[in-house]
Amino acid sequence: MDSQSQFYLQTKVPSNLFRWWSQFRSNKLSFVALIVYLIIGTFALFAHFIAPYDPTTQFTDAIHIPPSWYEEGQTKFILGTDYIGRDMFSRLVFGAQLSLSLASIVVFLSASIGITLGVVSSFASYGIDGLIMRIMDFILAIPSLILAVVIVAIIGPGLPNAIYAVALVLVPHFVIVTRTAIDQEKNKEYVTAMLLDGASKTRLFFQTILPNIFPPIIVQLTFAFSTAILEIATLGFLGLGAQSPDPEWGSILSESHHNIMFAPWTVAIPGLAIFFTLLSVNLVGDGLRDAIDAEKK
Amino acid sequence: MPVIILRQLLNFIISLFVLTIFTFGLTHLFPEGVSLLIPQDLDTGSSITQIGESVANNGNLFSNYFQYLNQIYQGNLGLSSVRGSSVFDEFFIYFPATLELSLVALIFAVFAGIPLGIIAAKNKNRWPDKLIVSSTLFGYSMPIFWWAILLILFFSLWLGVTPVASRLGFEFDIQPLTGFMLADTLLSDKSYSIEAFYSALHHLLLPAIALGTIPLAVVTRSTRSAMISILTEDYIRSAKARGLSFTKVIWKHALRNAMIPVVTTIGLLISILITGSLITESIFSWPGAGKWLLEAVYRRDFTVIHGAILAIACFIILVHFLLDLLSIYLDPKRRRT
Question: Residues A118-176: pLDDT tens digits?
Fold first, then answer.
């Protein structure tokens, strides 16, 4: 450390990001959730190296093997096998990859459409704004899963179509969050000051307002992510999303829930995977929101 | 005061219009040849016009839309392409089952959630509050299909205290009058009507708990946050200063004001309940509208899909309208504007 920085006692002003992070870290539950989430994410990212077998390989001599901690379990199959002898652990790990990557695609699609529409509607004329908001209100009025089911029914079941359906259903939330955030910022004094300085609309938006509407949008991103995981799994469970050999968590559950009596682990384990993923994403979202709210005060 | 009611009414009618435009557009997205079947005459049921085809024939979208509106106004939603029965009639056979299930789930959520929210708000940041808030987080993160399976596993298969599927024990023969099994069993003149009522209640319990869990979490959270903000108000402090007991303060002063945001939340719950009933019904083999819609999706019965989404969305819009009126009644601030 050089002598100058000790001479001038002024410390560096912590950035917004750093302050959120230190606020977030002080919430132990959310921090643990973030670690759990990162572990699941690592599993998903390196599924090819972590999973011992291919998720669709069938071991015909090892059907319904219980998890390894049972008497009849085998160490070859850590979490046991399912009704046609596929390794549960491999399916679960590849399922994490599938669920998380699909949810990311969904969130990316709906966020880019939703944020754009939100910006357009808050800067556009009264008529266009009204039209966009009425359409969004209408999409919100129909229960999301029913809308997704109907979309899938029209364009046909399957993973890509399920992605479009879920993405469409999530769009209105982004529009509303973006529009509310911009409306709140618009009337603040620093924006008026910029306006009086003669800033153009684009400059006003990109340099003045945009950095300040990130917090609510980031929170909305995490909640949309957890909704996307849940909706994709639900569609998979109903047989309208991922189709049979795909190791999607929801479709694993729907295949195995008939065998719940003699192979309860095939139901318990994928359910736990969905539950813990959702719980960790929700906790991280809660922590983020609290951190950002605390900073505001 | 009448102005705001008129405004709500106008909103309601506009929403219905947007809905019919949406469903009308939907009929054009259906695959060729299975376009919406609208019987010209319900009595004969033989002459059938295909809206999609007539659009192709004369190309006048407007007159077709008004023809479509007219058909819906007459309660004509076409015939199921699988069963050949009227979709309108089928809806009224299946929907009461969904409504009954959702209502019981809602009652469970409200009557458990409001006290839990009050307890949490009263003990803010102490252990009861932390316990309740973290349990609501469990409720939010629980995939309902897995939760329902776990409930069946525990209560039906392990403890053996509740039935697994359907609405009524097979030994009872109850004529549907209202479609609500609880009412039908009581109205029935059979000698076993009371036993049938208990059986229906028994069958209803587990699906209602499965369906009501997420709403319970939502109601608890919104009651808690409404209560916390109201308990810091001046009028609550002055009520306490006058020496009223905590229960009196809650009952006489806080609850009604805390109910305003909760009523808004119940509006959101309708969506959650209908979505949840789609899954719950398919797991518990509950013969409701959700299962009806899903079956139609599996069999690609587009007339039923169209009718189901139209009717369910109408119902939701109606409930939102009524809840808006209720919140105007509860909230004097809204009455003035």
Answer: 988 888 878 888 888 888 888 887 888 888 888 888 887 888 888 998 999 899 999 98
Measure in Å the smallest separation between the Cα of B253 and chain A Cα atoms. 29
A260 touches chain B (CB under 8 A): yes
Beta strands in chain B (DSSP E): 37-39, 48-50
Joined together, the tokens standing for residue A74 give 């085998």
Q: Is B313 in contact with A226 (Cβ distance < 8 A)?
A: no
| B311 neighbourhood in chain A, CB within 8 Å | none
Find the Cα–Cα–Cα–Cα dihedral A120, A125, A127, A130, rounded to 10°.
50
Give the tens place of pLDDT for each residue, A194-247.
888 888 878 888 888 888 888 889 889 998 999 999 999 998 888 888 777 888
Contact B271 A260 (CB under 8 A): no
Rounded to whole angstroms, the Cα distance separating B333 from B7 reads: 16
Quote the DSSP letter at residue A87. B
B150, B278, B313: residue with CB nearest A145: B278
Report field, pTM of the whole predicted structure over 0.80? yes
How far off is chain A from B39, nearest CA to CA, in Å? 22
- Closest by Cα among A287, A269, A267 to A279: A287
pLDDT confidence tier of residue B55, bands split at 50, 70 and 90: very low
**Which of A233, A257, A260 is opposite residue B143, by nearest beta carbon?**
A233
Domains of chain B: 13-73 (no CATH), 88-336 (1.10.3720.10)
Average pLDDT, chain B: 80
